[in-house]
């Protein structure tokens, strides 16, 4: 067979050749803009030519610090297609971590959204590798800024070569992108994505039993483009010529709902907290979501009650998935097998509330502390290990590589059970499991049940030290606006569903649960707050 | 990213692990048999262990000479998964070509269907590399045969190791399979498939805009498993745990219709002549085909009238595709783009009668005799060139490699037009185009229109030498049973649709059109018959 490499160049060129009339709809600071793939294609080539003129060479890192919009999409293809590496930077990092990752990745150029300039200006004196800053805005005029040299994105694109020829010497194992993932302790850890990994991941996302993304889809990634490639949505959508709806800066549940309605979105993707927020917004009953064929949810476990609400109250199919920055990210999806469709509604919901089965191309196994595979009985807990062509094999220039990558497997740090259908269910993070009297209590199970309580908006369960039992669970609960509940009521709600010793010792009511930059519960901070 | 290779081992192991309860339904000489993937998995390992015991080593070729059934499926995975190469041999080859390809491939072991034994017995004294013959039959007892040493497939499987461990040292670029394609003149040419090529092709077949094959499908390949991997159906079906319905020896339109009905087939694949035959059978009106979501048709151009009949008369969606042995084989599929769904029924049918657009992962271009790309206007004709990771890059140990593989492209020998949507339409084979008075006439266009005539079952148009015009078209026509038509009537039917000089000089009525071993018109023979 021919040794044609699997590269991102072929994805953007496919959109240019075969889907030139299809659209990318982009929300920016000034409003909504429409572009055809023909226009996106030319602008992307022009951007690549500009980067080259600025001195970006093969293998150089190009950082982006931006929301979900067409310019970010152009950067997604311009940098890798000229042989450089797209480094998407989480806009919610602390100044210390921000400086660390830009210097650690040695970003040569930074593309920055105009409203995010102050965050980079604040750390600019600490940056050691950046040779040029590019401000992404709808105007060609440069804003006032302390960054230097500063270029206008639109000016560069307008001066650039829209017929620029992409690199032809890209090996499929060359790096195409990178993203840092926050660690529980210490600095963020860098993950490098190859052309091959992203290409295969794009194919996988279009497979019928995965997300089945097709040309006819209108895809809106709510998951940020600065996080794990927005779950690969921009790549697969471009490959297939799907319409992209990019929701721009400062997304709110209202903006998300409006865009789903107005632009006939067929599939969207994001973390549970996003969908929890949207659910409240949809309850207003003023949005048309009939064209929405799937909500893809991952990042952390979605409560079963939320899945039920989407499907029963709003007739929106909900696909529970699992992945992480290290895995490009899709690893598993919860779908019914054909012989499961006759089960009762509750049984089907149980299956679809799990994280699901591994997608074609990857391998998983679940091991106990001795490294032996646990029983596939849906009961035995173990750490999830993953292997495959879109799984990282190291942290970029980082000693912590040896803790997570062993014997050809990624050790995820996620504790799961696996059933006899091969479907996994996240029980907890390794550090979040609660060890009480020698037995394990799953914080995730308690949380998901708590979130089914009619008065509860979100809930996180953490371990507090206990002299007698070693650790005991404490529930941290945020109530819905205008709803009330007492500790006794909450515990009573849990009682029928758990063994007595699983019940939290205490219910702490709070206004908000601290979250990581990608919307996951920050249990470390929560433990500090509660233990104070 | 991890350098885990893309190999066929992962496909069969996936079926074993996650779809162990799903079924393979196999029609053999004695009747219908049902197997779970758990059973298929064990039998496949046992077969691999037996092959090893017979001396098959990494890279050795294992030939199969068989119909579509579960044993052939087991061989599809056993040989490649132990590091050997599956060589599927066309059962319709002449003794001379049969001997040639077995010796040329240096097959070490041959697996032969019991009813096909005589065909191998006839050439056995000419075979130079075969060390063992295995007869595939439902019984363990060996039949009378002059082949030696002869083993029983079922005995080998029953004595084999159902826990056999597959090879772990397979590189994704290692050969997994091979198939010879008949040449217009001379010996058949060998095509070698790699693990990587077949793996990627399997992913492509499951993509939403391709064949969207899923776990819930019940897949029946009518295209023979001895031809171009049965278009990859056995591989992708196993990868996804789809139910496989293998229609066995001596398929007739009646058997095909009965199996589609009885086993709730959702997707089937084959060449136009098969579907032409089935159409007549369906007209009996006694079959339930409501579950059939797609008929995949390729190998040669399907007449528009046939596509219309399937869709309007029987409500069976028809997907026109294009590929060849050298391309694993899927290259293009004709699907509507989302903005084409509002076109008139006739316009949509026109689009879907074309060969369609290239699937993700491959590149095509259409070039004139100077090698320049032709206009994408749907009018200009040129040769189709293909490139990509599941396209062959040579003929196995064959000097004719240099004629078909140039500058990294496969020169298909197919003349096509390409429109501004990137959709190709086969006009003719390079040698079958009719050059009349310095202009080209497409035999395929004439044929497809002829086959829309209510009395015509099939039609082939060939060039005959002409002293004045260089070449002139002659139509060879097979009438439907109990239907009549005259030459004048046939020409009158064509008249409104073609320029006058396109009309055939003569209509020859025949009982049957000679076909190749894979059901394509044998125009070379036809020319000899007509020119006699």
- Give the proportion of residues in helices of chain A: 25-40%
Shape of chain A: globular
Quick check: average pLDDT of chain A?
Answer: 95
How big a fraction of the residues of chain A is strand? 25-35%
Quickly give the structural class of chain A: alpha/beta
Oligomer designation: homodimer
If interface size is counted as residues with C-beta under 8 Å from the partner's C-beta, which chains form the largest one?
A-B, 55 and 55 residues
Strand arrangement within the widest β-sheet of chain A reads 2-1-11-10-12-13-14-15-16
**Unreliable parts of chain A:** none
The value of Rg of chain A in angstroms is 23 Å
Largest sheet of chain A: 9 strands, mixed
Question: What would the keywords be for this entry?
Answer:
alpha/beta, homodimer, 532 residues
Descriptive report:
The structure is a homodimer of 532-residue chains. In chain A, helix 7 packs across helix 8. The termini of chain A are far apart. In chain A, the strands form 5 sheets. The first copy, chain A, has a 9-stranded mixed β-sheet with strand order 2-1-11-10-12-13-14-15-16, with helices on both faces. Chain A is an alpha/beta fold and 532 residues long. Chain A is globular, with a radius of gyration of 23 Å. Chains A and B meet through helix 1, strand 9, helix 7 and strand 16 of A and helix 1, strand 9, helix 7 and strand 16 of B.
